[in-house]
Amino acid sequence: MTTTTKIPTPVLQTADHLIASIPFLLGFNPAHSVVLIWLRQGKVLLTQRVDVITHSDVRAVVDESLDELHVWAREVTSALRNVAADEVAIAVFMDSQHEHADWCDTLISVLCHSVIDRGVYPIGAWLVVEDQWRAFNFGQAKFHEAWQVLDPGIEADVAQDFASIGCSPVLHRSDLESEIGPDFDRQALVHEILQGDARLGVVGDDEERRNHVIDEVWLHLGHDDVPNEGIAMMARALTDVRIRDCVLWKLSSEPVDQARAARLRLLVRWVPVGKRAPIATVSAIYAWMLGDGARANVSLALAFEDEQDYELGRLLALALTNALPPSHWREMMSSLPYEAIRRGGAP
C-alpha cells in the first residue's frame, strides 16, 4: 500500500481535476491500482493506493457474497482509524478498457459499502484507463458505458498548480526505486574506507566522541557534496541507535524540505549494500514527514533488503500500513527533550 498525506492540491472542481491530480498526490502514475482520496471539508487528508484485487485473486465465493472481497475492502478502509475523513473519492486504474470490466463494478460496490459503513460519504468513483475515464453510477451499481477523455487543458492546469509547490510525478514506481539505486562505484570507494579503518564512526562508551559524531553527521546532512570519508563515517555511526535517534530528533525539529530529502536519497545510493538499513530508514521517515508515502515505502523496502528485521523500519512500516499521519511522529519527537533522546530514550 502507498499512502501520501497532506500534500497541497488544486481545487478538485471536476472529475478531470481529481484524476489529473492523482499522479502528483502519489508521486508516480498508478497502474492496476485502486486509489482512495480521503477528504474532510474538501481538504485532502490522505491519498491511499492499493493493488487491485481481481476475480482470480479471490479464492472462495460463499453464497455469492464474495467474502474475501469484503475482507479486502475492510482492510483498505481501516485507514479511517487514523484519518478523520468525511468524504472519499475513488479511482480504479486498469491497463485496458475491457480488463475485469464487470469485476470493477462489483469491487467498487463492495468498497463503497465498506466506506459508508464507516460513516464516510463517497463523492464519486471512476474507472481510468490511460487518458480516458468513466464514472460509477451509484443508483445502478455499475460504471457508465460511455468513456470520457481527460481534458488536456485541465491536465496542464493541474500540472502547473503542483509545479508551483515543487511536486512532479515520475512515470512508474520503478523510477522512484532508481532514485535510491546503488551507485556501485561510489559504494566500492566507501567500502574500502570502512575496511581500512575499523574504528571509523565507532563510539562505544565515549560520550564526548558521540556528541562529536552527531555534530559531524548533522553537518554532512546539510551539504550536497559529502566526501567518501564522511559517507563511511555516517554509515557506521548510524548503526549506533542513540546517534541515529538524535539525528532524527534534529530532523524532526526543523521544517522539512525537498532538498534535504534528495540529499538523504543520495546517501542511500552511496552507502554500501548490506549497511543501508539505518540511512534508508532515516530517508523513509523523512519522506513520510514530507507526506511522500511512495518514496517512504521505496526506501523502507530497500532497508529491509539489507536487514529484514530492522526494528525502527518495522515500526515505520506499521505506521504506513495503518495510514498514521506523520504529524504523530513529529508530535512524539517534540514531546521528548533532546537530552532524553541523547540518553537513549527510544523514538
- How many structural units, i.e. domains? 2
Q: Could you tell me the radius of gyration in angstroms?
A: 22 Å
User: Per the principal axes of the C-alpha atoms, what is the gross shape?
Assistant: elongated
Instruction: Tell me roughly what share of residues is in helical segments.
Output: 40-55%
The biggest sheet amounts to: 8 strands, mixed
> N- to C-terminal separation?
24 Å
The CATH homologous superfamily name of the largest domain equals: Cytidine Deaminase, domain 2
Report the CATH architecture of the largest domain.
Answer: 3-Layer(aba) Sandwich
Strand content: 5-15%
How does this model look, in words?
Strand 4, helix 3 (101-117) and strand 5 (121-129) form a beta-alpha-beta unit. The protein starts with a strand and ends in a 5-residue tail after the last helix. It has 2 domains: 2-169, Cytidine Deaminase, domain 2; 176-342, no CATH class. It has helices at residues 15-26, 67-77, 101-117, 152-163, 173-179, 184-196, 207-221, 228-237, 241-253, 258-270, 277-289, 293-306, 311-321, 327-334, 338-342, and strands at 2-5, 33-40, 43-51, 87-93, 121-129, 132-137, 142-143, 148-149. The protein contains 15 helices and 8 strands. It is elongated.
